[in-house]
Amino acid sequence: MIEIDGSHGEGGGQILRTGLALSTLTGKPVRIRRIRSGRKAPGLRPQHLISAQAAAQICGGRLIGAAPGARELSFYPGRIQPGRYTLDVNAVTASAGSTSLILQTILPPLAFARSASRILVKGGTHAAWSPPADYLRDVFLHAVARMGIRAKLDIHRAGFYPIGGGEIETIVEPSPVPLKPLRIKERGPLKFLRVISAVAHLPLSIAERQLNRATNRLAEQGLAPQGATQTVESPGKGTYCFILADFENVRAGFSALGEIGKRAERVADEAVEDFLRYWNGKGTLDHYLADQVVLYMALANGDSFITVSEVTKHLKTNIWVIEQFLPIKFALEEDPSGSGGTLRVTGTAFQGRRD
Fold first, then answer.
1. Helix-strand-coil percent breakdown of the chain, rounded to 5?
2. Quick one: pLDDT at residue 10?
3. CA 94, CA 97: separation in Å to the nearest integer?
4. What is the pLDDT of residues 61-105, one digit of tens each?
5. Beta partners for 321?
6. With contact defined as beta carbons under 8 Å apart, do 121 and 57 qualify?
7. Which of 31, 60, 156, 236 fits a 20 to 30 Å CA distance from 249?
8. Active site residue: 48, 126, 287, 314, which one?
9. Four-way CATH pick for 2-183+285-346: 3.40.50.2000, 3.65.10.20, 3.10.20.30, 3.40.640.10
10. What string of DSSP letters covers 96-110?
């Protein structure tokens, strides 16, 4: 059994998700201790618990200790079973727990299944501390598609804090194995820059203010963004601003959420400032994408290498978890200036389990 310390580095939830995904993929049981130790609310939160239950559901696995607030969990995986799955954070408790983070747990195993799967995940689609569903659809899936991952995501309705209730649906087709390596050193020319400003059960004027602020600030930098406002379906109120930057070799995404007392202009400013840090810095992959692709790099055939805009503690933690399961070693070189770095790994040419 693989033993994982859930308090290692940062990203306790990320340790859980990556550990469960790799346990399901490799067939190696895992025990995760001290889950989210040191947090204000340690232990399993609703989206973590649903992630664990989802991993068990797609492979007929067995969970021990999976309960709200639990700080230790053991998982004994079975054989991956493609099919139709519905996962609802509210089945645990009323919550806007992130649907994107739940999907990240089960997408890798299902991509190596023998037939297609359809997954409906209900909860928060635009939640704090996680990439929005727009990012997963337009940035992450675009990146791993070049490695061979075949998945399509649709956002049926948005889910905002505190009630969630959003829905995303993903179709995952069997991927050719082994995966292709990911090799991106430079962004290449900017092809287009798009700003989406959306509201749910709020005046469209809020979305217009967000859009105007974002596009004006970007224009001040000599950029020519495309822009659009949207009214999205949702059971609750909410607003967000999402910036998609499409370069020749990579996409990057930046977002901010509205909340009570936060002006629309501030929402736009947060998304723009996040983009400008990336735009004026080094590296190709934004920090969310770097975290998310390293697992696929580890499974690919041959040498993968990327440059990253930021070497986060979450990235280092995810690398550490992967190295507990697979016979590989990542080489991470941080830029002396503290801006980004280079990451290399020789993948395992994973073929999927043949049990």
1. 35, 30, 40
2. 63
3. 9
4. 999 998 888 889 999 999 999 999 999 987 776 667 889 989 999
5. none
6. no
7. 156
8. 314
9. 3.65.10.20
10. --BHHHHHHHHHHHH
For the segment 182-203, what is each residue's pLDDT rounded down to a tens digit? 999 999 999 999 999 999 999 9
* Most confident segment among 46-55, 127-136, 175-184: 175-184
The two tokens of residue 234 are 């949702």
Q: What pLDDT is stored for residue 93 in this prediction?
A: 66
219 three-class SS: helix
Query: Which pLDDT band holds residue 37 (cuts at 50, 70, 90)?
Result: confident
Q: β-strands 150-157, 166-173: how paired? A: antiparallel
Query: What ranges in the chain are assigned the alpha helix state H?
Result: 12-26, 46-59, 99-111, 133-135, 141-145, 204-220, 264-279, 287-299, 313-325
Overall CATH class of domain 190-278: alpha beta
Per-residue pLDDT tens over the stretch 39-54: 777 888 888 889 999 9
How far is it, in rounded angstroms, from Cα 53 to Cα 204? 38
CB contact set of 30 (below 8 Å; sequence gap of 6+): 1, 2, 3, 4, 19, 20, 22, 23, 74, 75
Residue 26 has pLDDT above 80, yes or no: yes
- What letter does residue 124 receive in the DSSP assignment? B
What phi and psi values does residue 188 have, to the nearest 5 degrees? 80, 180
Clarify whether 201 is annotated catalytic.
Answer: no
Ramachandran category for residue 219: left, alpha or beta (phi over 0 → left; psi -120 to 50 → alpha): alpha
